[in-house]
Amino acid sequence: MQTHQTMMEAIMAEVHATAYATGRGNLSPGVIKAMQQAPRHEFVPENMRKLAYANEPLPIGHGQTISQPYIVAIMTELLSLKDTDTVLEIGTGCGYQAAVLACLAAQVYTLEVVEELAAEASARLARLGFDNIDVRVADGHEGLPAHAPFDAIIVTAAPEAVPMALTGQLKPGGRMVIPVGTYRYAQSLLLLEKDSAGDIHERDVLPVAFVPMVSSLQRS
Ligand code: SAH
Asked: 214 CB less than 6 Å from ligand 1?
């Protein structure tokens, strides 16, 4: 039987096993607490509840998935969030990653291109009492200029290249984690850091498999 506790153990084991690539052999206390707090069973469809605390991605409808808990944890870890930070997420999906971010940061803006998913996530997050998450229906390629710049940006769908608008909306000293690649099973998770002079430093962290980031044109 998978429980929140066994999920945490599986995440920690994978964090240790991938430390050579990520540079993080452990999760910080804040990230551990956020992963312990976020009720993943509330974010998966009813018929998947038994699997909610397995360390696996799961289908959530509309051809989309809820990310694997380890991936949520390590991407969050790489952002090194502070409780005063404003974060932009691209790809709300069910809202689980946004909930984890909201436990650590001051404000989370999250963009989703599928209207039904955005509406469901927004209602779910409000019902669970998250009052620092703003879900918007928008194409993530453009970012959210009205609320930029951001301390951190996390992208949970894979574009073919890092969208220019997103690097532009990162604060100096800010960080972005983003999966990039043309094929679903040949993507790299990149960590981008913008230094105080505005220059971007990029590191290839891990091979990952995210759903593709679509453009709004593809959907109409
Ligand atoms: N963050 C989610 C996982 C999301 S899966 C979690 O916590 O589990 C990726 C999501 O990105 C999907 O819901 C998909 O509809 C959305 N997406 C794809 N292309 C997008 C785009 N251009 N802009 C915004 N969202 C997009």
From this structure: yes
Q: What is the spatial distance between Cα 199 and Cα 203, in angstroms, rounded to a whole number? A: 13
Specify the long-range contacts of residues 48-52, CB closer than 8 Å, at least 24 apart.
50/2, 51/2, 52/2
Determine if the peptide bond prior to 39 is cis (ω within 30°).
Answer: no
Residue 141 exposure: Cα atoms within 13 Å on the Cβ side: 11
Q: What is the pTM of this model?
A: 0.97
Tokens 């689980």 label which residue?
96
Domain ranges within the chain, ordered by starting residue: 4-219
What kind and span of H or E run contains 72? helix 69-78
**CB 52 less than 6 A from any atom of ligand 1:** no
Check if 211 has its Cβ closer than 6 Å to any atom of ligand 1: yes
Task: Convert the pLDDT of each residue in 115-159 to its tens digit.
Answer: 999 999 999 999 999 999 999 999 999 999 999 999 999 999 999
State which fold the 4-219 domain adopts: Rossmann fold (3.40.50)
- Cβ of 135 closer than 6 Å to ligand 1, yes or no, is no
- Using CA atoms, how far residue 165 sits from 33, 172, 195, in Å, is 32, 15, 17
Residues annotated as part of the active site: 67
Pocket test for ligand 1, best of 128, 156, 210 (most atoms within 8 A of CB): 156
How many Å lie between the centroid of ligand 1 and the Cα of residue 155? 8
